[in-house]
């Protein structure tokens, strides 16, 4: 394993951060705090050093019970059964310096602006395709491209109202973009609830450190929905549309509706009349103008998309097409979620904004291209191979940790359907101290900042830190055994 000189531990590599803690050569974010030496860093590190493992474990168990009692769960689907689970919460926070966050924030906003221009372009003039910036068949043949959206103008030109940009930190501490989530990014409820949990369970760690608040998300999202309401509406009615109680993120839907102060509705609660959308209330029908939807395109309207959908609202697409309702995120944004399209984002940023990407991509080989496929097939044992349309960590091969049988299986899939895959080098993901069975051990983390866009863009300070709780694992997804941490952006 390559040893990084900046990695602190109880060894000679760096300062003693926590008793017995050794980041094992990976970039450690707590060590970066020790090197900075600001007042906030010093205060935080001193508090961390005083924490006792047994006491931490006891308080962590109390926190888990409280999370369950509050109903803060997600649903895992397995063999046609549904299991509600608590998202494991690690009590040791992930900390980001103010200057580092300024860079992340600017990079996320740059990326979201590019996504909005790109999506508008592909549904209108298609200049990026004509100019050869990105292959036309990659976009027009994408399963998430919605031909029905061609020529439709959306309020303010905003297609991606909520974006979750997945970032990782490499062995040198550089933030890199792993993927974009421009359809229905989830997880923001855990950001806010994790902070609440820390404030209740660990006030001695949180108080007077100088941490940016995460309380504004609901009001900011509501304001964005008001900003993009159909023109001429004086007092827009906003609602949150959920698939219902069986959805894995239903807790988050309830949470966000409460934080925004808007009704939570399902498809059966809405009706379309004269190309306008109304919700049923105890006092009769009330028109709705902006909907934050957590239903995928396919199930949104059985008249326009999947005829067998029982979750959506018949006729809502026609109301949308005529400008009588705003949907966030816009229909057809899923093209931007594609992992092959992701590889072209640096070119798209330069094309639309005339700027270099502030947050670089992870090096990516596109298997639909002959050179990318050959390189991937020749180096499978050294690469991470991903299906372009999957999420949640499913279908990924981590070459350096795969068996010969797994490598040969993915080789056959690549040869059979190369367009379905990309490959990337295995990044030495950064680690954070994590409480494991009463001991503080390093675990790999990623970061999902959430950007909300209406008349302007705003990035929630910190975002969701996901942590791979299994020793040595690089997969942070909750569906694959990952957990989360509170993410602190320092104020100075």
Automatic annotation (TrEMBL):
Name of one Pfam family that matches: CP_ATPgrasp_2
Occurrences of domain Circularly permuted ATP-grasp type (ranges): 93-468
Alphabetized SUPFAM superfamilies for the sequence: Glutathione synthetase ATP-binding domain-like
Protein name per Swiss-Prot or TrEMBL: Circularly permuted type 2 ATP-grasp protein
Organism name: Pacificispira spongiicola
């Amino acid at each position: 394993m390559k040893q990084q000189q900046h990695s602190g531990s109880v060894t000679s590599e760096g300062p003693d951060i926590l008793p017995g803690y050794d980041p094992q050569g990976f970039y450690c974010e707590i060590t970066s705090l020790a090197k900075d030496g600001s007042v906030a860093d010093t205060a935080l590190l001193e508090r961390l050093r005083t924490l006792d493992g047994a006491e931490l474990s006891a308080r962590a168990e109390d926190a888990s019970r409280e999370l369950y009692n509050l109903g803060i769960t997600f649903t895992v689907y397995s063999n046609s059964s549904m299991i509600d689970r608590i998202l494991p919460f690690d009590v040791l926070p992930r900390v980001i310096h103010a200057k580092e966050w300024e860079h992340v924030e600017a990079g996320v906003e740059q990326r979201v602006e590019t996504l909005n221009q790109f999506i508008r372009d592909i549904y209108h003039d298609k200049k990026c395709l004509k100019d050869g910036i990105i292959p036309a068949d990659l976009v027009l043949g994408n399963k998430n491209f919605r031909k029905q959206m061609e020529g439709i103008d959306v309020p303010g030109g905003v297609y991606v109202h909520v974006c979750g940009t997945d970032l990782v930190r490499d062995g040198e501490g550089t933030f890199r973009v792993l993927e974009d989530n421009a359809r229905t990014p989830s997880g923001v409820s855990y950001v806010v609830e994790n902070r609440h949990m820390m404030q209740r369970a660990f006030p001695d760690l949180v108080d007077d450190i100088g941490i940016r608040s995460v309380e504004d998300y609901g009001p900011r999202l509501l304001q964005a929905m008001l900003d993009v309401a159909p023109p001429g509406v004086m007092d827009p009615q906003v609602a949150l549309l959920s698939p219902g109680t069986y959805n894995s993120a239903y807790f988050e839907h309830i949470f966000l509706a409460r934080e925004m102060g808007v009704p939570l509705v399902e498809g059966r609660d809405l009706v379309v009349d004269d190309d306008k959308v109304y919700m049923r209330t105890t006092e009769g029908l009330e028109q709705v103008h902006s909907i934050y939807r957590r239903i995928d395109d396919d199930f949104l309207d059985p008249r326009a998309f999947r005829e067998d959908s029982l979750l959506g609202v018949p006729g809502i697409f026609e109301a949308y097409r005529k400008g009588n309702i705003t949907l966030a995120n816009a229909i057809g944004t899923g093209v931007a979620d594609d992992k092959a399209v992701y590889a072209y984002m640096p070119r798209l940023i330069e094309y639309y904004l005339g700027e270099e990407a502030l947050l670089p991509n992870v090096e990516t080989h596109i298997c639909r291209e002959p050179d990318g496929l050959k390189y991937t097939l020749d180096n499978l044992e050294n690469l991470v191979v991903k299906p372009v349309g999957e999420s949640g960590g499913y279908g990924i091969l981590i070459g350096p940790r795969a068996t010969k049988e797994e490598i040969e299986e993915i080789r056959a899939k690549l040869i059979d359907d190369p367009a379905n895959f990309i490959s990337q080098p295995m990044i030495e993901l950064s680690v954070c101290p994590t409480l494991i069975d009463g001991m503080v051990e390093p675990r790999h983390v990623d970061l999902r900042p959430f950007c909300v866009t209406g008349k302007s863009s705003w990035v929630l300070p910190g975002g969701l830190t996901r942590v791979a709780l299994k020793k040595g694992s690089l997969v942070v997804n909750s569906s694959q055994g990952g957990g989360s941490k509170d993410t602190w952006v320092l104020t100075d």
